[in-house]
Design a protein that fits this description.
This protein has helices spanning 5-43, 46-58, 60-84, 87-90, 104-139, 155-180, 209-227, 231-248, 258-266, 276-281, 289-307. The protein is an all-alpha fold.
Length: 308
C-alpha cells in the first residue's frame, strides 16, 4: 500500500529532525570531549591552584558562612512549615490570607530550588568574594590585613562592622533589585522569583542563579569583603541575612513579612531590605498613592457598612 504525499512529508520531517538532533548531540559530545582534555591543564595553572587552596583549606569564612546560611534557612523553614500545617490556627496571621496556601508540589519545588542555590550557587559567589577580601586587605590599598578566627574579637568594632554590613546590603540589594525589574532582566531572570505572589519561607532562595549569586548573596558577601570583619561576625552576619530573608518570605506578620509581601503583591514597591533606600528613593509602599487608594477603599467599605 502506497503512502499518501502528506504522510511521506511528515515522515520526512521526523527523519530530518532526528538527523539534525543527532548531529547536534554528536557535535556537543565532541566539544565536551575537547574541553575535558584541557581541564587538567587549567587545574595545573598556578593562580587557580592558589585561589582554591587558600579558600578551601585556609579561609574558614567560606565554609562557616555557608554553614550558618544553610542552618538558618532550614531552621526557619522548618518552623514556618509546621505553622503552615495548621491553617485553622495560623492562617489568620498570614499577610495575604488564603492566597498564601501552597500545594505540596509547589512547596517541594521551592525547597529544592532554594537548597540548590544554597549548596551550589553559593560557592560561585563566596569563593571570588573571599579571594577579593584577601586581595584588598592583604595586598591592596587597605592598611589592614585579613582577620582570622584566631585573631582577638573586639566586640565594639565588630558591632559597627555588622551595622556597616547591613547598610551595604541595603544599597546593594536595592540597586540590583531595581535592575532586575528592568525590561531587559525581568523576564529572563527575576520572573522566576516572582512566580509566587504570596511566598512562603522555603521560597526565600527560589530564584535564578544569577539573581541569587549576585543580587542576594552578593550583597551579603560585599559587607564582609569591604569591612574585613572578624570571621565570627561574618558567620553571624550571613546567618542573620538568610534568616531575615526567610522570615521576610514566610508570609507571617509576626515574623515581619508584611513589607516584602507588599513587594510581591504590588510589584513596584519595597525594593530594599532595610527600608532606608526605599525611603530615599520614594519607593516605599506605605504612604504611596497605591497605599492611600487602598486605605480610602477600606474607609468607603466601613462607611457603606455603617449606612446599611
Amino acid at each position: 500500500m502506497s503512502l499518501s504525499r502528506s504522510t511521506k512529508d511528515v515522515a520526512y520531517r521526523i527523519a530530518s529532525n532526528r538527523l539534525f538532533q543527532g548531529l547536534i548531540q554528536g557535535m556537543h559530545l565532541v566539544l565536551m570531549m575537547r574541553v575535558a582534555t584541557h581541564i587538567p591543564d587549567v587545574l595545573e595553572w598556578q593562580p587557580i591552584q592558589d585561589v582554591f587552596f587558600d579558600v578551601m583549606m585556609l579561609d574558614t569564612i567560606v565554609c562557616g558562612s555557608l554553614l550558618s546560611a544553610i542552618i538558618g534557612f532550614l531552621c526557619v523553614s522548618t518552623v514556618t512549615t509546621v505553622l503552615d500545617c495548621f491553617p485553622t490556627v495560623f492562617l489568620r496571621f498570614k499577610t495575604q490570607g488564603e492566597r498564601s496556601r501552597f500545594t505540596i508540589h509547589e512547596w517541594a519545588e521551592a525547597f529544592l530550588v532554594s537548597m540548590m542555590n544554597l549548596l551550589c550557587t553559593s560557592w560561585v559567589c563566596l569563593i571570588p568574594a573571599s579571594w577579593m577580601r584577601r586581595v584588598l586587605h592583604d595586598n591592596g590599598s587597605f592598611s589592614d590585613r585579613t582577620l582570622l578566627v584566631t585573631d582577638p574579637f573586639d566586640w565594639r568594632t565588630e558591632i559597627l562592622k555588622f551595622v556597616a554590613c547591613f547598610l551595604i546590603v541595603d544599597v546593594w540589594f536595592y540597586i540590583t533589585h531595581r535592575a532586575l525589574h528592568s525590561r531587559l532582566l525581568y523576564a529572563r531572570v527575576h520572573k522566576v522569583h516572582h512566580r509566587f505572589k504570596a511566598p512562603t519561607a522555603v521560597a526565600a532562595m527560589y530564584a535564578h542563579p544569577l539573581e541569587y549569586g549576585i543580587g542576594n548573596l552578593g550583597g551579603v558577601a560585599a559587607g564582609v569583603v569591604l569591612t574585613n570583619c572578624h570571621p565570627l561576625t561574618a558567620f553571624a552576619w550571613t546567618g542573620f541575612g538568610v534568616v531575615s530573608s526567610t522570615f521576610g518570605h514566610s508570609g507571617y506578620s509576626f515574623f515581619g513579612a508584611q513589607n516584602h509581601d507588599f513587594h510581591h503583591q504590588y510589584f513596584s514597591y519595597n525594593f530594599g531590605v532595610g527600608g532606608g533606600m526605599d525611603w530615599l528613593c520614594g519607593t516605599g509602599f506605605i504612604g504611596s498613592s497605591k497605599w492611600r487608594s487602598l486605605q480610602w477603599g477600606k474607609y468607603e467599605d466601613k462607611i457603606s457598612f455603617i449606612e446599611t
